[in-house]
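Here is one chain, start to finish.
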Amino acid sequence: MRRVQPLLAWGLVAAGALLLLLGWYGVSGESLTAKQLPYLVSGGLGGIALIVVAASLLTTQDVHRQLARLEQVEQRVTTMYELLVEELVPAALDAAELVRVAGGSTYHRPTCPLVVGKETSPLGPADRLALTPCDVCAPAAA
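Its structure:
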């Protein structure tokens, strides 16, 4: 139906144009206004009506095409989001095993020689973004 709809619409445009042409031809052959009115009503209004229907068919076809493209974009965004969340969830779970020293600018593994024997606190959710990983114990690989 989607492939037939544009052809049908353009056929209606052609039929509407033909009706307008026939209406104009009928009006041009009559000198009395009273005899011109039937041509205007049948040819003019009928032609305009067919062209309006054709325009609505073409418009709905375009809207369907745009919605299909939007659905494809939505699926791609969903896939990208799932990939990002898949990567972040293990990192967030591993963050429970990481520690930081109060006032420090890096985060560490609990076994890191730089924090052994010091007072540490667990790494919070925002700490991983605010702090940098330790170069010695390499917690970024966790």
